[in-house]
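Lab meeting notes turned into a lecture example. A postdoc, R.K., suggested we walk through two folding results consecutively so the class can see how the record format repeats. The first protein's sequence and C-alpha cells come next.
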Amino acid sequence: MSHRTAADIPLLVRSENSSSERRVSPSWSVAHFKTRLEPIIGVPAAFQRLSLGSAVQEQTLEVADPDAVTVESWGLRPYTEIYVQDTRPASARVNFNDLSSVKKYEMPATEYESRSDSVLAWKKAQKLGRFDPDAPSVEEQKIRALQREVSERNIEVGKRCHLLPATDGRRGVVSFVGEVTQIPGLGTWVGITLDEPTGKNDGSIGGERYFDSKKNCGVFVRPDRIEVGDFPVLNDFAEEMEEI
C-alpha cells in the first residue's frame, strides 16, 4: 500500500544540523514520518522529538501511539515549520557543522607543482606574479612605494610640515628628500629641520651632510611619518603671555 496521496503538503523541516522543505502525505503515520526524516536530518526515529516552530517555543507534536496517529491529525497548513530535536545524550550526537575532526586531503607541494591543470601552472603560463620576468623585485616595489608616498603627500623641500602621529607634536621644514645610504633600509627618506632641538642630528649622518640645521634640530623619517601644510612655528612664549 502506498503512503503517498494527492493531498501532499509542503513543510519546512529544521534540526540542529539541517533545514529543508519536504512534501508530506497527511496519510502517513507519525512513526512513518519520523522514519522518512531520519536520513534527512541524521537523527534516529526513536530519538526524534517533533514540535512546531522551534525548540525555544515548543508546541509538541508528540503522540502516545505514533504508529496509529497520522500526520493529518496535526492539522498542519502548507509551509508549517517543524523542529526536530535530537534527544540523544550530547556525547552520542554527531555535529555535522564541526569540521575540525574531519580528515582533509593535502596535496604534497611537489605533486601540486607538477600538475598542468592548477592555478600555479596557469600563472606560470601567463607569466603572472613572481613568474613575470619583468616584475619588480621586493626591494624595487618598496622603493616605488616610498616614491609614491612622496608624490601623493606632495612632499617637497621648503614646505612646512608636522610629524605623525599628531601626538608627536613636532613641526618643521622639509629640507631633504632622497636616499640616505648611512641609514639601513632602501628608498626615500625625508630630512626635516625641526623648529626646536628635539631631533637627532644637524642634517648630517656618518660624516655625510644632507642639509644644514642647528644641533639636534635635524631628523630623518619615512614619507608616511609627515604631513605637509600650513603648520606655522609654535610660539609657546606668546601662549604663556596670553595666560598671564
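The second example is placed directly after the first for contrast:
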Amino acid sequence: MSSSIPTSSSVTESAVIQAPLSQVWHLIKLQDFHKFWTKLSKSEHVQGASPETDIVQWTFEDGTVLDVKLEEHSVGALFVNTQGAFYDRPLHNLLCEKEGSTFVQWSAHFSSDADAGVIEDARFKRKEALADLAKVVVKQ
C-alpha cells in the first residue's frame, strides 16, 4: 500500500488584472517575469542554448534555478515547458483575455511522479506571482 497522498497532477490559478491586455502582455514575457514576481531575483535569456526556441533562466530568491522554454506564443497566450525539471517537464500555460481588464490563467500539468508537496508549491507560486503582477500593473 502506498503512503503517498493522492492529488491532482495539475494546477490552475487565475486572476483578473485591472489593466488592459496591452499593459499586461509586456510584463509576462518570460525574460521579464522578474520585473513583477518578487520570488525571482532574475530572469534572462540563455544564449545559444537552442536554435529553435527561446530558453529563459529563472533564478529564484532561494537560489533555485529553472530553465523555461518558450514552446509557442501568440497575442494572448504563452505555452512554455520547463527544461530539466524534476517531473517530466511540466507544461505551463498562460492565457490572457481582454474585456477592459485582463483575465490571466496560469496552469501546469505534471507527470504522475510529482507528489502533493510539488503540486501545492506550484499552486502557491502561481498565486503569489499573479498577486505580484496585479500590484505592479496598478503602480504603472
